[in-house]
What we know:
- This protein is of the alpha/beta class.
- It has 2 domains: 3-123, 3-Layer(aba) Sandwich (Rossmann fold), CATH 3.40.50.720; 128-317, Dihydrodipicolinate Reductase, domain 2 (2-Layer Sandwich), CATH 3.30.360.
- It has helices at 14-24, 37-47, 56-60, 74-86, 101-113, 128-138, 169-172, 177-193, 309-312, 325-341, 356-374, 385-395, and strands at residues 3-8, 27-33, 51-53, 67-70, 90-93, 118-120, 145-153, 197-205, 210-214, 229-233, 239-246, 251-257, 266-273, 277-281, 287-291, 298-301, 380-381.
- Strands 16-15-14-13-7-12-11-8-17 form a 9-stranded mixed sheet. A 6-stranded parallel sheet has the order 3-2-1-4-5-6, with helices on both faces.
- β1 (3-8), α1 and β2 form a beta-alpha-beta unit.
- α8 (177-193) crosses α11 (356-374).
- It is globular.
- The N and C termini lie far apart (41 Å).
- Bound molecules: alpha-L-sorbopyranose.
- Alpha-L-sorbopyranose is lined by residues 154, 180-181, 184, 220, 265.
- Residues 154, 180-181, 184, 220, 265 line the site of alpha-L-sorbopyranose.
Amino acid sequence: MKLGMGLVGPGFIAAHHLDAVRRLGTVEVVGIAGSSLESAKKRARELNAGHAYADYHELLADPAIDVVHNTTPNHLHREVSLAALRAGKHVISDKPLAATMEEARELYEAACEGNLAHVVTFNYRGYPLVQQARAMIAKGKIGPSVFVHGCYLQDWLTDERAYTWRLDPKLAGASSALGDIGSHWCDLAEHVTGARITAVLADLHTVVPVREVPASSAKAFSGASKQPAKRRKITSEDVATVLLRFDNGARGCVTVGQVLPGHKNDLRLEVNGREASLAWRQEQPNELWIGHHAKPNTVLTRDPAQLDPSARGYAHLPAGHPEAWADAFRNIVADAYAWIRRGAKPETKPDALPTFADGYRNSLVVDAMLKSHAAGGRWHAVDDLLESTRTTRKRG
Ligand code: SOE
């Protein structure tokens, strides 16, 4: 039987959620809700997305919907995901899990209470060569990891006439670059290495401190607006550099930025082990660089036959047929639906699938970065997820 899905928040990413579920073939797109009935009707027509609901409450009341995809702006994540869980729906939420660490904790705790799937789209985990790197590290192929570094660089906010709700702390949370894209990098670094970031030292900066804000917010990557605009002071960072310490003793660093000409969606992760190194780039996702000290370096190209069994299922085309962003996104959505069909129990969760626990964990990491910077650039410990949950429960 097909599972029914409904989507709340039909912006840029919504089309990719719909594309992913359609490719599964086992999900029925029941309908969508937006900020008004008119906007939902318009998007439902454009995306061929079934019924247009007046609001998300009406969508949640529809028994035909089993799974809710929450693609609203960050400030609505908490409200919509909580209501969906309370209505007994499985939830697939965009990252970050919520606008603040406190909201993320609330969502995580609510998710722990039910037998419902709770997924956050840290979609870069869905690449076959990311899973390959993870398997190689877990199997000791590069020796103990000692240095973990990389970047997530974009340029779509370079022009001061480019504006997005992601720069408004009321809608996005206090952080822009770290919250929007640094969050992906940190999740990926922890997922691939299996190590946890325990402390951070962050330096944040706003390269474009005043922007021209058009009447309506731009979609990601849509460039400078041509609408008449008001000037607005920007408080969120658009670049950041962060030093990292991991629980296995590894050190690292990450740079993020949204105003760096030429960099489109340039996420890179390199892990240096004592015996070998691995490096992967999101914009060349079909290659994994394997570095050696005393023998030639190699490049593993995505070939299902060459992959670790745990990574093979994430590759769908034969070698030489490039797979990319939409395929990786689909892999995460496929894992989410596989989990739902297996009863959404902790023990039936596909290993690579990011949950609200990962979303909350990630918000603790980003929060520590903001606090480190606010303290003048001091090392700041990242709270342990379970420890901080236990403390709140005691307090609560
Ligand atoms: C915009 O920076 C954005 O669309 C992010 O919001 C996504 O999470 C990232 O995958 C690509 O860039």
